Amino acid sequence: MHDIKWIRENPDAFDAGLKKRRLAPQSAPLIALDKARREAQTRAQEIQQERNALSKQIGVAKSKGEDAAELLEKVSASKAAEEAAESEAGARTAELDAALAGIPNIPGEGVPEGADEAANVEVAVWGNKPDLGFEPKEHFEIGEALGAMDFERAAKLSGSRFVILTGPLARLERALAQFMLDLQTSEFGYNEVSPPVLVRETALFGTGQLPKFGEDLFRTTQEHWLIPTAEVPLTNLVAGEILDEDALPLRFTAHTGCFRAEAGAAGKDTRGMLRQHQFYKVELVSIAHPEHSEEEHERMTGAAETVLQRLGLHYRKVLLCTGDMGFSARKTYDLEVWLPGQDAYREISSCSNCGDFQARRMNARFRPKEGKGTRFVHTLNGSGLAVGRALIAVLENFQQEDGTVTVPEALRPYMGGLETIGPADA
């Protein structure tokens, strides 16, 4: 959510930020709405003050035994006028809030401008593409040949964009999540959380998924929503709270199921596990001091990169352009892992600094040690990593010509010492 006071004082800067997002100027209608709201509020206050004065006159008149009927009529009319002004102020406030709720975050300094992913900037590369020495297969070919990845039975149960993993691949998925959680909690200081995966509408509004992206979410019949990412419950842990400055930063991690309708992904990645309605992810969330959120962003991205490095997976780090960033983000790094079977890089982590955009929506603040009042925190979120896509990357990068898959050394303690996955293990 944007600060209307800041927009009033910096209309050109606000519109320039929207222009980077390929959006039309919006400061003028927002300021006009705000003006109408404030005028209605002022009118209601003035009417109340006038009525208070009339009430005193009535008291004086009655004490002298004078007729106060005319004054009472004025008080009655005053009440109606005040109610009308308050109603108008409430309507203008709701209209302004709704308009602000649909406007994305303003890009931060240094974010490249561009319409889509073609304008993203590669900032770093780690490792080298594996030289397999044979024609690599895609993950679903490997998994099905192992007899441990079943899309047909999943479709029978749930329809398209679901999978059933069994035997060693089910264990590999679990091993990846455990490895990620252990790394993030023991080396990077994230506090593990087991949050609800059903949340109220207010939580999704707080992190920016609602109201704009409701069609991409699953909703229950009892006014709960399935989370698209653990960013939602983890960030909302501080919703409506005032934290002590010394408590910052707060760092949370969680391994949860994630649920997405993929309404805008018709025809994209229909084969395999890349884009599913249900998947698992280890999420990272930081609640940071505004003056330290940029360095926290670099730290979080480094924590996600460490997972890929420990697994021995070649990847590149990409700075997203203004046209490819998420709604709530002011700056985002994507980590794209190399998939030999696809002969392409694919996103496996997205780490974003949202500034105070989400904090304003959920009213999350802290009290500075010096000075008066409160300030909004900065919120950050990232994948540490998407577990299903990590499984895909392991299958494709560590596949062998005979159809087996070598288990990365970092995962072997979580796999009971298993070094190779073959059809006999399924």
Written account of the structure:
This protein has helices at residues 4-9, 11-20, 27-63, 69-101, 139-145, 151-158, 167-187, 201-207, 231-235, 293-311, 357-362, 387-397, and strands at 121-126, 149-150, 164-165, 191-192, 198-199, 225-226, 242-244, 250-259, 278-288, 315-319, 331-339, 344-353, 365-367, 375-376, 378-386, 405-406, 420-421. The protein is 40% helix and 19% strand. Strand 11 and strand 12 form a beta hairpin. It is α+β, with helices and mostly antiparallel strands and 426 residues long. The longest helix is centred in the N-terminal third of the chain and has 37 residues, at 27-63. It folds into two domains: 4-101, Helix Hairpins; 117-425, BirA Bifunctional Protein, domain 2, CATH 3.30.930. Helix 5 (139-145) crosses helix 12 (387-397) and helix 7 packs across helix 12.
Question: What does the overall shape look like?
Answer: elongated
Please provide the ordered H/E string of secondary-structure elements: HHHHEHEHEHEEHEHEEEHEEEHEEEHEE
Q: Number of DSSP strands? A: 17
Mean pLDDT: 93
